[in-house]
Amino acid sequence: MDNVAIGYLGLGIGLLMLLLGVPVAFGLGAVGLIGIAAIVGVPQALSQAGLVFFHEGTNLVLVAVPLFILMGNLANHTGIASGLFRAMADTLGRLPGGLAIASVFGSAGFSAIAGSSTATVVTMGRIIVPELKKYNYDRRLGAGTLAAAGTLGILIPPSLVLIFYGIITENSIAALFIAGIMPGLLTVVVFALVIWLVAMARPNLAPPIPGPGLRDTLRSLRGTLPIFGLFAVIIGGIYFGIFTPTEAAGIAVTGVVLYGLVARTLTWRAARAALLDTVVVSGMIFAIVFTGYFLSRFIAITGLTDSLIQVIVAMELGPYEFILVITVMYLLLGCAMDVLAMILLTVPFVYPIIIHLGFDPIWFGIYIVIMAEIAMITPPLGLNLFVMRAIAPDTSFAQICVGAIPFVIAELVITALITVYPQIVLWMVP
């Protein structure tokens, strides 16, 4: 069996293992290590494993990962999420569908300090679901809104997914963060427009809520200034080259800690819980990433990417036809596996083809994230749909799926827009 055949076989086995529920780190690591051993021998494979752990384990860029995770956990334990939602609800609640629109804007704000989709859904869902029930919002609309708004956590910087894409492809993480801003804002606006149109067509599904006076609204908004100020400092500092994403992560953690101390919401118990959560999640992510590098080296050794490029050339697929093919592929894969696993499995062989076809690598990073967003809310296997089911057990899974469909359509429209007009993604990138 030649190397390319071993590559295809290994990739198929890896995909099968992930679909069968084998832990991602074990699946990727086993395929990579055994595959390399089959080609170059066991001693060389073990040597490669040691080099990967040493080289990637000493990569300073990875320091940003636990720091951004810690920032999100601290924000979760210091009441920042509830403050953001309350400010948005006070400001937007009088609009048709205002409470649901406030959920989108509040989730976007929390995403800017969380960096995780699941964390955004869980944190904001626990706060917002009782409010939606209180004001008799339609369960389908409410659940679909929260599931969709949670996906902003992996697009709006700082995004852990963009960090790993940048590391794997050796692209600028700062450029990826900047590129995620406009698509993130566009997604927020489109989601809000979807809710407004639904509320205008059927007012009983999303009634406006009574809001406080102007003075109380301004007071609520003033309470969010430190958080948005911190976001501006992080992104502004990265954009103007004042500090690196890793340094920005350290500044972000410091800012959230200071906010918690000044607001008197950061207790020893909250800090301990945040640190423990960070250690657990970081350990899991690093295990996946390091073993994912075994798979990347395996694919490189087999020459699988060159073989796939030859197949694409032989099929005479144009650039946009290929994008359509991998769009379907990512939607199917994203419904069945974790976002990080999907990226580690596919980017090593898809990325060179994308570059060969002339697409911008920064644009492709944002495209993958949006594909992951769609997959996370696509019925019936989207991860965020199951998370919402756990948060709102009195809402049926069928209702959650129905509520998510308008947002899936909206995300597909956004995907088409950034594909036809890539400058939506790239115009701010220095």
TrEMBL record:
Name assigned to this protein: TRAP transporter large permease protein
Summary of the function given for this chain in its UniProt record: Part of the tripartite ATP-independent periplasmic (TRAP) transport system.
Primary location: membrane
Coiled coil: none
Record bears the keyword Transmembrane: yes
GO MF annotation terms: transmembrane transporter activity
GO annotation, cellular component aspect: plasma membrane
Quaternary structure annotation from Swiss-Prot or TrEMBL: The complex comprises the extracytoplasmic solute receptor protein and the two transmembrane proteins.
Localization (cell): Cell inner membrane
Similarity comment: Belongs to the TRAP transporter large permease family.
Segments traversing the membrane: 6-39, 60-80, 100-129, 141-167, 173-199, 220-242, 248-267, 274-295, 307-332, 339-359, 365-388, 400-421
Organismal lineage: Bacteria, Pseudomonadati, Pseudomonadota, Alphaproteobacteria, Rhodobacterales
Matching Pfam families: DctM
Membrane topology (UniProt): Multi-pass membrane protein
Domain TRAP C4-dicarboxylate transport system permease DctM subunit, chain residue ranges per copy: 14-424
Keywords attached to this entry: Cell inner membrane, Cell membrane, Membrane, Transmembrane, Transmembrane helix, Transport
InterPro entries named among the record's database cross-references: DctM (IPR010656), TRAP_DctM (IPR004681)
